[in-house]
Write a structure and sequence with these properties.
The chain is built from 22 helices and no strands. Helix 20 runs parallel beside helix 22. It is an all-alpha fold. The longest helix is centred in the last third of the chain and has 35 residues.
């Protein structure tokens, strides 16, 4: 901390000259009197930026950083390389390594958690490389940058939750802080929580602690790792019985471009483990399950929480079986030469193609995998009956039926083409 506070700030005289050259703001005459700026080395930064970015400075003035006994000023986070209006690009963006100078525990927890792997997980999806750069930047990467890798070796973006320049702990503790990313078709967690009883009570009575927010369950005691038992995809090994294991492996085999050979499967399972998309041993699952049960027990009996989560486990089992059955239907079409085969790929079916899937039946399967199943098992865990059933289970059943009918139609067309001497699909 002492090292950071000794970093030199923008010289006062240069900063005032920049301020004088800056065009006046249209609302300058109506603005209230500005509070006195700091008398120390940060004075030059504040003098200029209070004209250029007044709300930015206001947020910093009201922050815990500014009000600390030894204020954390601009240079502590942005360095001293930015000296004039001509070298603004030299201002450093604070990385987790910088934040860790004061918040070592939180940065260490984050680095060992799932959010730190967010950018790596999205980069592991090959189809994204074919999307226009603007689509990648404004789409997946906008949220997955929470796991940004920095040149200094640190990973993460603390300002994803503690937004600049207030860096408010109180703001990051509110469920709305999670809403930006944890919403929408494939990860509707905020909507599930908000419209379930927990979220309704929290909305009506947000300060009493009667109902849990996202952070209550997923950041127990402020733990920044944010881990869960089932992981994002609702897959884990081992599972309790043979059929469930078979169904799980069917889905794992369909995730990603690796082959079905032993080396390919090891690579796939290794990647899933490295990205923490699933729990691949019983102790790691049990650890997260026990942590969640301890949270439930603050309001409910232990048996109530246990029964709820075990019933949700059964929903995971049922949705895994339904998806696996549909995967096998599509795989059968590949095995029989009815779906076109890409000779450059060791695997045919690839659920990570998402909306780039080449056929209608595979498009239906991708929606079943990424949208409907996610809503079903995550809705169950979040105690939201409507999301579990009408947004999840019911569409899964409908997709499974469409996949069966499409497969039957394709088989009839292939048989007719073979009888007539034509090549299927031509």
């Amino acid at each position: 901390m002492r090292r950071l506070l000794l970093v030199a700030a923008v010289p006062f005289a240069v900063a005032v000259a920049w301020s004088a050259a800056a065009p006046p703001r249209s609302d300058a005459q109506d603005a209230p009197p500005r509070p006195a700026g700091p008398a120390g080395p940060e004075a030059g930064c504040v003098e200029c930026h209070e004209r250029l970015n007044p709300l930015l400075v206001k947020q910093w003035r009201e922050s815990a950083h500014a009000k600390a006994p030894s204020a954390v000023g601009c240079a502590a986070c942005h360095g001293s390389a930015h000296q004039t209006e001509n070298d603004a690009r030299n201002a450093q963006r604070p990385t987790p390594k910088v934040c860790g100078e004061c918040h070592e525990k939180q940065v260490k927890q984050f680095s060992g958690g799932k959010h730190a792997l967010a950018q790596a997980s999205v980069q592991a999806i090959p189809m994204l490389a074919g999307q226009p750069p603007a689509v990648r930047a404004m789409g997946c990467e906008a949220c997955h940058s929470v796991g940004k890798a920095w040149p200094d070796g640190s990973v993460g973006r603390c300002d994803a939750c503690h937004t600049r320049h207030a860096f408010s702990k109180e703001e990051a503790r509110r469920p709305e802080a999670c809403e930006t990313c944890h919403m929408g078709e494939d990860h509707s967690q905020y909507e599930m929580w908000r419209s379930a009883k927990h979220g309704v009570i929290h909305h009506l009575d947000p300060t009493s602690g009667r109902a849990p927010a996202c952070q209550t369950c997923h950041m127990q005691e402020g733990d920044h790792a944010v881990m869960t038992g089932w992981g994002f995809l609702g897959l884990r090994l081992p599972v309790p019985d043979e059929q469930w294991t078979k169904d799980t492996m069917t889905i794992v085999q369909a995730i990603g471009p690796w082959g079905r050979d032993e080396a390919g499967m090891k690579a796939r399972v290794g990647a899933i483990a490295a990205l923490k998309l699933a729990r691949l041993d019983q102790p790691s699952f049990a650890e997260q399950r026990d942590k969640m049960l301890r949270v439930c027990a603050k309001c409910h009996s232990w048996s109530f929480g246990q029964q709820h989560l075990e019933t949700a486990d059964e929903v995971v089992r049922e949705t895994t079986h339904l998806l696996a059955e549909s995967v096998r239907v599509v795989e059968g079409l590949y095995a029989d030469g009815i779906l076109p085969k890409d000779p450059s790929q060791p695997r045919q079916l690839d659920l990570l193609l998402f909306y780039e899937a080449p056929t209608q039946i595979e498009q239906e399967l991708y929606r079943m995998f990424l949208f409907h199943r996610q809503k079903a098992f995550q809705g169950a865990v979040h105690a939201n009956a409507d999301y579990m059933h009408w947004f999840g289970w019911a569409p899964m059943k409908s997709s499974a039926q469409r996949i069966r009918e499409l497969a039957e139609s394709m088989r009839r067309e292939a048989a007719a083409a073979k009888a007539g001497g034509a090549t299927p699909g031509k």
